[in-house]
Write a structure and sequence with these properties.
- The complex is a heterodimer of chains A (220) and B (360).
- Chain A has 220 residues and is of the alpha/beta class.
- Chain A has 8 helices and 10 strands.
- Chain A is 38% helix and 25% strand.
- Chain B has one domain.
- The radius of gyration of chain B is 21 Å and the shape is globular.
- Classes of the chains: A alpha/beta (220), B alpha+beta (360).
- Chains A and B meet through helix 1, strand 2, strand 3, helix 4 and helix 5 of A and helix 1, strand 2, helix 3, helix 5 and helix 7 of B.
Chain lengths: 220, 360
Amino acid sequence: MAGATRAAIGRRLSIPGKSYMVRWYVVSVVSLVTPGSEEEETEKEPLRERVDDLDGKTIGLYDNGKPAAEPLLTAVQEKLSERYPNATFDWFHVEHLNQIKNDDKQEEVKEWAQTVDTALGAIGDCGSCTKFLAWGVELIEEGGTPGVGLIDEGFELDYQSNAIERGRALRYKKTPVRCETTDLDRVREEVSEEVVDGIVDELTRPLNDKERAGAEKVAQ
Amino acid sequence: MSKQSQTEESLEDINRSLYKEGMTDGLPVIPPTEERVDEMLLGTDRDRDEVIGELGNNENALTVERLAANAVMAGCIPPYMPILEAGAEALADPDSNSIQFSVSTASWSYQWVVNGPVREKLDIASESGAFGPSYHANQTIPRALGIAYRNTAKIYPGEKDMGVMGNPYKFYFLAGENEEASPWDPYHVSQGLDEDDSAISLAGPNSWVQWFPGENNAEHVARGMIRNTPESMRARSGEDLNATITHFINPYNAEELEKADLSKQEIKEYMVENSHRTLDEYSRSFGGDSDLPPRQSKQYFDTEAINIVSMGGPGRVNAIAGTSIGGPVTKKIDFPNNWDDLVEEYVVETEWVPTEGFYE
């Protein structure tokens, strides 16, 4: 009986017509009320098509307000400028990390995104800034522009989880630049040519079928 | 061979499953059976499907029923429901900033302070050991609100909750203000409520320090409030980030401050005036506005960023909780019509120390 109980308890059943009444059923012995929120399905949106080449493009640099974002994006801009002298850069600074929670700031990001060909966002190097970076890159994609987030490698699962919850498997590039590293010279060293290769790849690699697919439901 | 009864086996298995699903805080829980949840709902007049608030990235709904399910798991009793509902409203209030402090690397905790007549009715401790273990309401109410937040917003350590160290206070940080021993207006009155109201207030600090003055007089207490504030804490109110610090002052020291005719506001002004610290890396995050910072900055930037609460029992120890990046948010508690009957039926009067007869 115990085994049967264990096997049955994880199933969650929606009562037809009352989707909010999600309950857990444990055989016939006990029925539990789920303590978790309703399992709504998020419409999964496709990623925006990548640019085929960065040459001559306007590359957006989205600074989410964390101290390490600007030096990281500065170092990346310098490296990309060397590779793509015809590329231009346009910055968007969120003055304070928390401002991205405001509707008017979100609209500003979407409007700005429409003025650039592709965009990089930084930085995901803490719990809330990784969350808000994913929000920012999602807004860039909502604005119709392909975006890529730059994250501390320790925050990959955090970025993925927040991106999925926002409804899009947003692209990202892990960098060796750790939390709160703001020394520009050090950041320049850490943004190696190999890192830049990876950033360029995320910005330009054609979407795969999964990234291109829309309307797929994602359980939160 | 197991000697467990059917019920005991089910309890164990249900706990395993709930833990596996990430629905607990790691401690054993009371299974939220329909019967137990129905019983918990005796503590509210609200419809079980009413949405109290929305939490997390996708604003997931926390209904009265799901709050009750989490309350059952945490070991709450029905008369706690009104305070849980008000606490849930505080969590859902954007001013609480729970969406940030619940996931941030600094491992912020949910700090709850309860005011008003509800403290006595529910035996919410505010004197000796109020923030410690032992008190049923003090332990189970914040636990219920903590797991309700996690289960609604769906955040897990190392996934969205990126607290580097974690925090032992996170889900267990609640006490009533010791209003009876306080020379000042209760905290909820300073937030605009009436003294006869009951209320719960939420903040989100990540650290807790206990300290005591060298002498039991106002000067040592007021100076100690500044000098014992860790270098890493900063208090500065603001629209983008409201960084606050709460001082929990024991009754003895509060009395000394009163003897010196110091109001709460005057104490705060003294702290702002005298809390200069040399600037360090935190200046960047807490308001440094120049590339070439001045040599000193105020640790307590403005009086609005300081909270003072009377707390604890006899003795000279005070506490500082900060820096909070959440709230403070205060919510009035509304009670159902049958609440006094529920209190009578469910609240247990403790008989821990049988003092009767000690000196006969």
